[in-house]
Design goal:
The structure holds two protein chains of two kinds.
Chain A (H helix, E strand, L loop, with lengths): L1 H27 L3 H5 L13 H8 L1 H32 L7 H13 L4 H10 L17 H12 L3 H9 L4 H12 L1 H17 L2 H6 L8 H10 L11 H10 L2 H23 L14
Helix pairs in contact in A: 1-14, 3-14, 4-7, 4-10, 4-12, 8-9, 10-14, 12-14
Chain B lengths: L1 H12 L4 H26 L5 E5 L17 H10 L2 E5 L6 H10 L6 E4 L2 H9 L7 H7 L1 H6 L2 H6 L1 E2 L2 E2 L2 E4 L6 E6 H6 L8 H13 L23 H4 L9 E4 L2 E4 L4 H15 L12 H9 L5 E5 L6 H8 L5 E3 L12 E2 L4 E6 L7 H12 L3 H6 L6 E4 L2 E4 L1 H6 L4 H4 L8 H9 L6 H11 E2 L9 H22 L7 H24 L1
Parallel strand pairs in B: 1-2, 1-3, 12-16
Antiparallel strand pairs in B: 3-13, 4-5, 6-13, 7-10, 7-11, 8-9, 14-15
Helix pairs in contact in B: 13-14, 21-22
The chains are: A mainly alpha, B alpha+beta.
Chain lengths: ~280, ~500
């Protein structure tokens, strides 16, 4: 009985989450006129691939896609490697000064310099208008370090000891024993960072003015905003009168879908790692 | 600046080693000299070079071009004989980007901001260059094309701190109606508020689209009382503006006329003549309902003839739209929201070494250069045929990025703006509509910069007004709740703002 209720409730919830997505998918295959007349709901009207052809042929979209892709791949790799390297020593109780370092890490979670001091640091380090401004300032996330450290602590010490007996170094233990055993947490953190990188846009607003470095999210916001300029604040009036010529609704929908799909595809590949109990039974006695 | 401080602190540490001190002092002098020398070279007879920040508003550039590499910015460079470097932060978050630029210490020579509060706060911090003398010297076209009211908006204590970019459109809203529906139901075009109500009743109840279903509205409004301006205007006022009563400026939303206007709208709602979803409608929802033929009367934007109305005509070939006369109120008044004169503030940070070059550039952009920046290059984007400007829309869209430059500085009543609207298609009647709006537009009578109280209380008071007015129209609150609203408004900062406004005017 309860399980039936569960199925119904969760099913409803899933439908709620899915419907807006399907609506946008339907729009992306419909004509501009059908969308602005409110005739498109969950099924395309005046079916065509035109919007996708236009979006995929657009240089600015492809360029932004490339920036986002590079940012996500390189950024996530840097995040995960550095977080591992910081969390592993912190998980060992024999490391001297561990609590001081932990305190410094937690401190940054509670207090930050704020937007403008951070900007000044980024500026002073010469990162403005460079690709690396996407990678370096956010290379370490304090929260994820703590998650990873706690997971590493749960790896049985006996396993590491036995590796040591077989002659591995500290780094070797980390790479060959601890990391393979910690795939669940690594997958989690990879996902956090990958999604974060893919969706990030505010650092571009602050640090980047070079259009060649604009990622997808900024491209999309500009596309979607183009005919949503608020009339009451008087700016962008020419944007309003030109909107019907330029930013077609179907085009917007197609761009949204084309930029959401890639990150959506990451989930199934990482899902198999979210399985517990790998370490079950590794230590006997 | 960071380098200097670190040097100074080093000097403190090594105080006793005089050699080091001398060495560092020498270094100091050398750096100072070299930077002086560089500055000298910039100003000495060579082309002045300036850096400006504008909002690109998401416009696209053709392949191989960008904000600094395109024929329009070259056109300004050549005609003003300057090096201009343009920076365009992303359109979303533009305001944030301006704040970090102002904090960075490495300031450009000109920034365009759309936010009056932003402008006011940097004037108060003395971060901007006063421009009066420079305008007298270099800005003849600026003086000619910008009216007195607009200069007043950017003047603080007698000093002009920005070159205003103007809003050439007097107001946004005008009433559109389906002529074919009026004819079908045997109605004349309404003039008074009562006649309007009769038409709305017929449109809501008499099945004007003849499909046998009760699926049409008498009137459609938008969230936060959007699209009500012509109706409130029938009482000679608008919401949220300062207007003169007995020699003092008062907030129009708190006047007895507003109560009467709300009573009229509440009555329409009670009779089920307004779209029941109006309080949730966004602009896109209104457009959708107009396009799908559910609405025959609404207060639209002046350019809607190219938007939802056009879509509706494509969907339904019988649809024929006309503009109506603004409704006349009990005292014979008409009115609609009149836009503020100023839409943007071109400011020169105090650190700029070439403020004169900025003024000369803007003077060219509003003067001789404006026609080309608005319309595009003649012969490429447009031609003159029989004295009319004819635009090639493919080229127009390719050259759309030029508007980033033309919107930076917009003159008030320029012939070329009219030419441009006509060239978009005479059938949309854009200039005709704008002239009609212009005859009744009610403008804010407070022209100064925003006061401190507006920044502090404004958002909260505005939210309260929207909530209470919406509830009154929907019948959730009785009409007399308006009197309580006026009291609350005064108590929660309104009184303070009123005093500030009257002092500074």
């Amino acid at each position: 009985m309860i399980s039936h209720l569960n199925v119904v409730l969760l099913g409803l919830f899933a439908v709620l989450a899915l419907l807006p997505f399907l609506h946008v998918v339907a729009q992306s295959f419909s004509s501009h006129q059908a969308i602005t007349s409110g005739r498109v709901h969950l099924w395309p009207v005046d079916f065509s691939f035109e919007a996708y052809q236009k979006v995929l042929a657009e240089q600015a979209f492809l360029n932004a896609f490339q920036v986002s892709l590079l940012r996500t791949v390189i950024g996530t790799a840097v995040n995960v490697v550095i977080t591992c390297m910081l969390a592993y020593p912190l998980s060992k109780s024999y490391i001297q000064g561990r609590s001081i370092i932990m305190f410094l890490i937690v401190f940054t979670m509670l207090f930050s310099g704020g937007m403008i001091p951070t900007f000044l640091v980024v500026k002073a380090t010469g990162l403005l208008n460079s690709f690396w401004v996407y990678i370096i300032p956010g290379a370490v996330s304090a929260f994820n370090v703590i998650i990873m450290k706690n997971f590493f602590q749960s790896v049985p010490l006996e396993l590491e000891e036995s590796a040591k007996i077989d002659g591995t170094s500290n780094v070797g233990t980390l790479i060959r024993i601890v990391v393979p055993l910690s795939m669940p947490v690594i997958a989690t953190i990879t996902l956090f960072h990958a999604v974060g990188h893919w969706n990030a846009f505010f650092d571009t607003v602050l640090y980047v003015t070079d259009r060649k470095l604009f990622p997808l999210q900024v491209y999309l916001r500009e596309l979607v905003m183009f005919n949503q300029s608020n009339i009451s604040n008087n700016n962008g009036y020419s944007a309003n009168i030109d909107s019907t010529l330029l930013a077609l609704e179907s085009l917007k929908a197609a761009a949204l879908i084309a930029s959401t799909l890639p990150i959506l595809l990451v989930y199934p590949f990482l899902q198999k790692h979210f399985v517990k109990g790998i370490m079950l039974g590794s230590v006997k006695g | 600046m960071n380098k200097n401080t670190s040097k100074r602190s080093k000097m403190g540490i090594y105080k006793k080693w005089s050699v080091t001190v001398v060495a560092l002092a020498v270094l100091f002098v050398v750096t100072a000299c070299s930077s002086d020398a560089k500055d000298g070279a910039d100003g000495a007879g060579e082309k002045p070079s300036i850096e400006i920040v504008l909002n690109n508003a998401g416009r696209k550039f053709p392949e191989g071009m960008d904000e600094n590499k395109n024929p329009y910015i070259d056109y300004i460079r050549e005609n003003t004989k300057m090096d201009i470097k343009l920076t365009t932060p992303p359109a979303d978050g533009y305001g944030e980007a301006l704040n970090v630029i102002m904090a960075s210490g490495d300031l450009p020579d000109m920034i365009l901001s759309y936010d009056p509060n932003w402008f006011e706060s940097y004037v108060r911090q003395k971060a901007l260059t006063p421009l009066n003398d420079l305008i007298d010297q270099y800005g003849q076209n600026l003086k000619k094309n910008i009216p007195e009211e607009a200069w007043k908006t950017v003047t603080v204590d007698g000093q002009i701190y920005a070159i205003p970019s103007l809003n050439p459109i007097p107001g946004n809203e005008i009433i559109f109606a389906r002529k074919d529906w009026l004819d079908k139901l045997g109605l004349n075009a309404p003039k008074t508020l009562d006649e309007y109500k009769n038409v709305m009743r017929a449109f809501a109840q008499d099945d004007p689209d003849g499909n046998g279903k009760n699926d049409t509205f008498g009137l459609i409004l938008q969230e936060n009382l959007g699209k009500t301006a012509p109706f409130i205007g029938a009482w000679g006022i608008q919401r949220g503006q300062w207007t003169e009563r007995d020699g003092k400026l008062v907030m129009s939303s708190t006047l007895p006329e507003m109560k009467e206007a709300l009573a009229y709208l509440a009555d329409l709602y009670k009779e089920k003549l307004i779209d029941p979803e109006w309080a949730l409608n966004k602009m896109a929802n209104v457009d959708e309902k107009v396009a799908s033929g559910k609405v025959g009367l609404f207060s639209g934007n002046w350019y809607d003839t190219r938007g939802p109305i056009l879509t509706n005509q494509k969907n339904d070939e019988k649809a024929e739209w006309i503009t109506l006369e603004y409704p006349t109120g009990p005292d014979g008044k008409q009115g609609t929201w009149g836009n503020n004169y100023v839409s943007g503030y071109n400011v020169v940070p105090i650190t700029s070494k070439n403020p004169d070059a900025v003024i000369r550039m803007l003077d060219f952009m509003i003067g001789d250069g404006y026609r080309t920046l608005v319309l595009g290059f003649e012969g490429e984007v447009w031609n003159t045929q029989d004295g009319k400007v004819v635009t090639n829309f493919d080229e127009h869209n390719k050259h759309i990025y030029r508007q980033t430059l033309s919107e930076a500085i917009v003159p008030f009543e320029a012939e070329v703006s009219r030419d441009r609207l006509d060239s978009l298609g005479m059938e949309f009647k854009l200039n005709e509509i704008i002239d009609q709006i212009n005859t009744v537009a009610i403008r804010n009578q407070y022209l100064g910069v925003p006061t401190a109280g507006m920044g502090k209380y404004g958002p909260k008071l505005g939210k309260m007004e929207n909530e209470i007015f919406t509830k009154i129209i929907m019948g959730d609150l009785p009409l007399d709740a308006f009197d309580q609203f006026v009291e609350d408004w005064k108590k929660n900062g309104g009184e303070e703002i009123t005093n500030e406004v009257n002092q500074s005017n």
